[in-house]
Amino acid sequence: MDSLSLLLSGFADALTPANLMWCLAGVVLGTAVGVLPGLGSSMAVALLLPLTFLLEPTAAFIMFAGIYYGGQFGGATTSILLNTPGQSSSIVTAFEGHAMARSGRASQALAAAVVGSFVGGIVATTVVAFFAQRMVAFALGFGPAEYFALAMLAFVSTAAVVTASPLRGIVALGIGIAISVVGIDDQSGAVRMTLGVSHLLDGIGIVVVTVGLLAVGEVLYQGFRPDGGAPVQAIATGTPWLSRGDLRRSWLPWMRGTALGLPFGVIPAGGAEIPTFLSYGVEKALARRRGNSEFGRGAIEGVAGPEAANNATTATAMIPLLGLGLPTSATAAVMLAAFQQYGMQPGPLLFENEGDLVWALLASMFLGTVLLLLINLPFAPLWARLLRLPRRHLYAGLLVFATVGVYSTKGSIFDVGLLYAVGALGLFMRRYDVPVAPVLIGVILGPLAEGELRRAMAAGQGDLTVLVDSGIAVGIYAILAVVAAAFAVKRIRERAERSPSRKAEVGSG
Q: Locate the DUF112 domain: which residues (predicted)?
């Protein structure tokens, strides 16, 4: 009850006209910046940080919360419409969202994404407000072995479950891990796989890989096809609302995605990428089991689940930031710097020393989620009109958009050239049916898996049993084993079902 009364006092502060205006401004700005490849919510907060010093602390952090939520959803817009994620947490949304857009259901894909963001954000913010202390204790139980186990679970789920061919999935995962180790090793200082090119010493950025594989690769693939690519059907822009069938297919993925995203925001270095990929894998596996899978052709479950997981992770990332002073995302790291600029130190005492600000911030997270829904849901048909542009204009604009987005991150012409090299790789992967998703998960989680494995082995002095020395790690590996076994059983059954039909064909021939 004490938490409820404190939250209500936070709403009293956040609902003042001035603070409500700052929250609205943050949501709008975050959404606008989130659609730009390579920028996202962290860049928006960083750029606006000097300007907010003119505001009093409560107003500044309320605006930051709006930017945080707006940026997370903004990346989904271009993922769905242009197959170009605004940030890495929107990568998975592009897989089914863009397929829905190409089949004339862009409005429904955007609506599923924004409602999923709303559901994940509201549930997760409620958890933050009432269960923050328990989740901080959960986060403290994670060490190097647990992080490595999480990475292995993501690797297996993506390479085996998400893709149709395990062999191609493993090859793609290997490509992603190989890309992730290019540059200087953070722990040993060794130079790896740079081929003597000094520009590669800092590695290949995730923005270059993401935009190159998804956006540039898709444009090149469509351009090299003899028919110039299948025509985009007319976009139904009359209503953003989901039909009863869409709602029936989406509400459980919203719930499952939220449940997957909740713990990952609390885990240091967890990020939104793992739960979004896991949510996609879960929904795809369930659709296969039901026998009515539309994955690969525009399954609304593949948009609803990952977007709910994305925003659930975004909200619970506030728990380690406020309770431990430990940021679990780039945006949270910038917000930590903002706290320090105002002379505050996040940690266990922050709720006591700066209680008014903290509870106003939590209340504004609720308001930001509601504003995100109210602003973006009615505009889904308007966004969908982008796909009515002539194909040559759309693809030319997409290439310009991708090039400017990548160049703006570092101001490097070399990165632009690298972008098109990665795009050529994406072209060949599409040509030979090699999946893109494992490459992306390998690039994102490869450094995490390597670093945590090294730390775990150093702590255990080379003893491999250190990797299974905790209940959390054993539990994660048990889930991994169940997933792998279920997939193996399914493949065996599929082969057994195909064998009689082949024999029948041979006999009739």
A: 20-440
